[in-house]
Specification:
This protein is an alpha/beta fold and 130 residues long. The chain has a single domain, classed as 3-Layer(aba) Sandwich (Rossmann fold). Helix content is 32%, strand content 17%. It has 3 helices and 4 strands. It has helices at 22-33, 74-84, 112-129, and strands at 16-20, 38-42, 61-66, 90-95. Strands 1-2-3-4 form a 4-stranded parallel sheet, with helices on both faces. Strand 1 (16-20), helix 1 and strand 2 (38-42) form a beta-alpha-beta unit. It is globular and about 40 Å long. The mean pLDDT is 93.
């Protein structure tokens, strides 16, 4: 699939996307299909269906994976990690003992220390690439 350029009023500004759950998959797809400067995926779902697009990812992508994610099995997580680990543009962080939506403030699965670690990594990532 060809990459998409999304015209911006002032294209000199850097652009990025980040998303949670299905938005996490969208961030992955934006990394593969757009000219975004960087992207962040929090516990993206069904990414395994688009692993064949990973070679298109040339700009930084940060992924946060919940190891106890009820929507992404450990086997699928391993498949994702194995498929993406050789791409130097992709950084993957796994969070043991946490479920899907661990970084959603006020949510039932919220885990403060894991959320803080993931969010700090995201801030550092944006500072480095935007």
């Amino acid at each position: 699939m060809a990459k998409t350029q999304c015209p911006m009023p002032n294209s000199a500004l850097p652009n990025s996307q980040f998303g949670f759950c299905l938005g996490g998959k969208m961030a992955y797809l934006m990394a593969a299909r757009s000219d975004a400067d960087c992207n962040v995926s929090y516990y993206g779902v069904t990414i395994e269906n688009n692993l064949d697009e990973s070679d298109n990812i040339q700009k930084p992508l940060l992924m946060h994976i919940a190891e106890q994610d009820q929507f992404v099995s450990p086997e699928v997580q391993e498949q994702i990690k194995n498929a993406l680990s050789s791409n130097p543009a992709i950084a993957i962080h796994s969070y043991p003992g946490v479920n899907h939506a661990f970084a959603r403030i006020g949510g039932e699965p919220y885990v403060a220390d894991a959320a803080e670690l993931a969010n700090n990594r995201t801030i550092e990532f944006f500072q480095a690439y935007l």
